[in-house]
Automatic annotation (TrEMBL):
<dbReference type="InterPro" id="IPR050447">
    <property type="entry name" value="Erg6_SMT_methyltransf"/>
</dbReference>
<dbReference type="GO" id="GO:0003838">
    <property type="term" value="F:sterol 24-C-methyltransferase activity"/>
</dbReference>
<dbReference type="GO" id="GO:0005783">
    <property type="term" value="C:endoplasmic reticulum"/>
</dbReference>
<comment type="similarity">
    <text>Belongs to the class I-like SAM-binding methyltransferase superfamily. Erg6/SMT family.</text>
</comment>
<dbReference type="InterPro" id="IPR013216">
    <property type="entry name" value="Methyltransf_11"/>
</dbReference>
<keyword id="KW-0808">Transferase</keyword>
<feature type="domain" description="Methyltransferase type 11">
    <location>
        <begin position="33"/>
        <end position="87"/>
    </location>
</feature>
<dbReference type="InterPro" id="IPR029063">
    <property type="entry name" value="SAM-dependent_MTases_sf"/>
</dbReference>
<dbReference type="Pfam" id="PF08241">
    <property type="entry name" value="Methyltransf_11"/>
</dbReference>
<dbReference type="GO" id="GO:0016126">
    <property type="term" value="P:sterol biosynthetic process"/>
</dbReference>
<protein>
    <submittedName>
        <fullName>Zgc:194242</fullName>
    </submittedName>
</protein>
Amino acid sequence: MWAEQLGKQLGRPTRSLAGWLNMAKKQMMELIASKKVTLHHCDVAAMPLRDSTVDRVFHCNCYYFWPDLRKGAAEIHRVMKPGALMVTTLRLSRVATIAAKGVMPGENWRPEAYMAALRDSGFTDVRMEDKQDRNITFQAIFATAFK
Ligand SMILES: C[S@@+](CC[C@H](N)C(=O)[O-])C[C@H]1O[C@@H](n2cnc3c(N)ncnc32)[C@H](O)[C@@H]1O
């Protein structure tokens, strides 16, 4: 549903969750076949992973679509090993432009909102840094799972 709504607001089609999943399946076919990668089609707030089993977390362009930042952050914290690092990246200027079109729930797109949810969920050393890749500046949020 959110993909349709976002597509309307942006004036171009956007991928659904199933669409993202299919793209990932195609791109990672060999790694999936060799069992180096497992894909889970699930809500970030209810992941089919055991407590304290994940070494590292990376997610990109995601948190601003979650209905509840605290539930998402708490679930990520639950599955991470003590001291494990989480990194998420975004292009804040782009996100702010899209948010101004009213397609994201409330003010969740603001990095401060997600960083507060991370701290409330037991992450420490939560910080955001500007990063550069060729001519693109983007932001990276880092957080360490404290347990
Ligand atoms: C803009 S796409 C970004 C996809 C990819 N990470 C990238 O940067 O190319 C946002 C993704 O968040 C996913 N998403 C939204 N709400 C979610 C939730 N509650 N749990 C898990 N994934 C969710 C969407 O299905 C979609 O795949």
